[in-house]
Design goal:
Blueprint (H helix, E strand, L loop, with lengths): L1 H21 L2 H18 L11 H7 L3 H14 L7 H27 L2
Helix pairs in contact: 1-2, 1-4, 1-5, 4-5
């Protein structure tokens, strides 16, 4: 339950950090919208994934939003998530963490030289 919610939230906080360290505030907002809106749609946050055509369902299963959605649905309702949900979420977490750390180091170098 609560542990799943906390773990699922981590990969979604990291891109925000990466973008926040990389861009000024006025530029960050539209970039976040351009990235997160397609992820939210493809991840099944607006429509249930069973309505997706097969090609979109296949893409959807590789997104962190679909993995997070399915894991939260599993935690709340008991409906099983697809088998690769945790590995997909962990993989995206590693990618987003690397981007956030890289952006932080670049930002730290700019601000404190």
């Amino acid at each position: 339950g609560v542990g799943t919610v906390l773990l699922v939230s981590v990969p979604f906080a990291l891109p925000g950090r990466a973008i926040g360290y990389s861009l000024p505030p006025k530029a960050a907002l539209p970039v976040v919208q351009v990235i997160l809106f397609p992820l939210a749609f493809a991840g099944g946050l607006f429509l249930p994934p069973f309505l997706f055509p097969p090609w979109l369902d296949a893409i959807s299963m590789a997104t962190p939003t679909r993995a997070g959605r399915d894991l939260l649905v599993q935690a709340l309702t008991g409906e099983p998530a697809y088998g690769l949900a945790w590995p997909v979420l962990v993989g995206w977490t590693v990618v987003f963490a690397a981007l956030a750390v890289g952006a932080y180091r670049r930002d730290e170098g700019r601000r404190f030289r």
